[in-house]
């Protein structure tokens, strides 16, 4: 154990978040651990985001807060990478400026890291669903019991410092993925030298940049800590988020991240994809068929005709990924009603379910949020 102070670098990629930026900076200014820097990356915002951040940095004093102004809007990946390049801390966090954070965020991380270095630390969060007026209509808490993996090694069965090998670690990652805790970057602290030494950066890709970054970040880590504490509050703003917009290649992007996850599990477990544990295939089957149903909803909303949708669905059923996962879909009533028709090839039923989902999403977002959690 050491009493050495650990410096944290906090990167906030900021684009048109004037409504939230001051609250985010005040959350960070109120941290009960003093050794940190905050780097706001103004991604050429068209509102007052950059000016408000500059004003806060000037008024706060002490040099903890700085602002990088990018001359062009290049997206969240490049903004985060710019912040990473400027960071001087031992650990780095990539937080979103339209969310908010517990004042004990950094002190909780320090309490773990001062005992032993970890390459990545993950913590719990809440997902706050907002209505059209910006008020919280529903909250989901995401947290798992604590776990610690130190000395992860090449061998599948050989344990590290705590007796846990890569298979145990792979099982833990599956649990995190099922709880939607693996892909986000904002519920994690990363050892900065580890990212730099391995050349890990946010990729230039739409919609799945977060999960692809984390798959790369977790690939070769030697140590990992999972904390049960809830330290982050994610505002899910529905249609304001990218998830509410039409993406022509939405399904292909989702399949890219599914394949990447499965391939990583194969490497860790030293198994072929068809030999993977049932829990892995069930987790990915759930994600795949939710994504497939979401693609139908998006197509309907975009104005695509029924025949056009059926044509690409019939093509999708020939995809090896569909064949791999169709017999591994599990879940409760929501799964049986909304997603099982797709796995069984009942396209008319799946299409009607998608139309129903679209109506519920649009007019009853709180009901839809609850429905998703009871899948």
Automatic annotation (TrEMBL):
<dbReference type="InterPro" id="IPR001173">
    <property type="entry name" value="Glyco_trans_2-like"/>
</dbReference>
<dbReference type="Pfam" id="PF00535">
    <property type="entry name" value="Glycos_transf_2"/>
</dbReference>
<dbReference type="InterPro" id="IPR029044">
    <property type="entry name" value="Nucleotide-diphossugar_trans"/>
</dbReference>
<feature type="domain" description="Glycosyltransferase 2-like">
    <location>
        <begin position="9"/>
        <end position="131"/>
    </location>
</feature>
<protein>
    <submittedName>
        <fullName>Glycosyltransferase family 2 protein</fullName>
    </submittedName>
</protein>
<dbReference type="GO" id="GO:0016758">
    <property type="term" value="F:hexosyltransferase activity"/>
</dbReference>
């Amino acid at each position: 154990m050491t009493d050495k102070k650990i410096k944290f670098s906090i990167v906030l990629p900021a684009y048109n978040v004037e409504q939230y930026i001051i609250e985010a900076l005040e959350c960070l200014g109120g941290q009960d651990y003093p050794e940190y820097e905050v780097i706001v990356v103004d991604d050429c915002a068209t509102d007052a985001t950059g000016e408000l951040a500059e004003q806060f940095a000037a008024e706060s004093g002490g040099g903890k807060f700085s602002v990088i102004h990018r001359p062009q809007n290049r997206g969240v990946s490049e903004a985060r990478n710019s912040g990473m390049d400027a960071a001087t801390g031992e650990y780095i966090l990539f937080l979103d400026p339209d969310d908010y954070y517990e004042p004990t965020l950094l002190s909780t991380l320090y309490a773990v890291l001062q005992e032993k270095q970890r390459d990545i630390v993950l913590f719990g969060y809440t997902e706050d669903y907002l209505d059209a007026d910006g008020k919280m209509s529903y909250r989901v808490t995401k947290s798992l019991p604590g776990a610690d993996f130190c000395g992860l090694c090449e061998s599948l069965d050989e344990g590290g410092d705590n007796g846990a090998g890569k298979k145990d670690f792979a099982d833990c990652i599956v649990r995190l993925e099922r709880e939607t805790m693996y892909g986000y970057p904002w519920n994690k602290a990363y050892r900065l030298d580890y990212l730099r030494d391995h050349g890990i950066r946010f990729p230039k890709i739409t919609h799945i940049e977060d999960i692809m970054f984390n798959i790369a970040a977790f690939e070769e880590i030697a140590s990992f800590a999972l904390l049960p504490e809830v330290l982050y509050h994610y505002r899910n703003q529905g249609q304001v988020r990218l998830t509410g917009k039409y993406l022509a290649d939405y399904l292909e992007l989702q399949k890219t991240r599914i394949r990447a996850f499965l391939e990583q599990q194969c490497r860790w477990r030293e198994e072929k994809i068809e030999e993977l544990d049932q829990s892995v295939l069930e987790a990915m089957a759930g994600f795949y068929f939710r994504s497939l149903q979401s693609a139908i909803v998006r197509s309907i909303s975009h104005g695509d005709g029924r025949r056009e949708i059926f044509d690409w669905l019939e093509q999708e059923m020939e995809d090896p990924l569909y064949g791999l996962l169709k017999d591994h879909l599990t879940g409760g009533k929501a799964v049986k009603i909304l997603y099982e028709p797709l796995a069984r090839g009942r396209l008319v039923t799946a299409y009607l379910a998608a139309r129903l989902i679209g109506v519920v999403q649009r007019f009853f977002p709180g009901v839809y949020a609850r429905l998703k959690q009871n899948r």
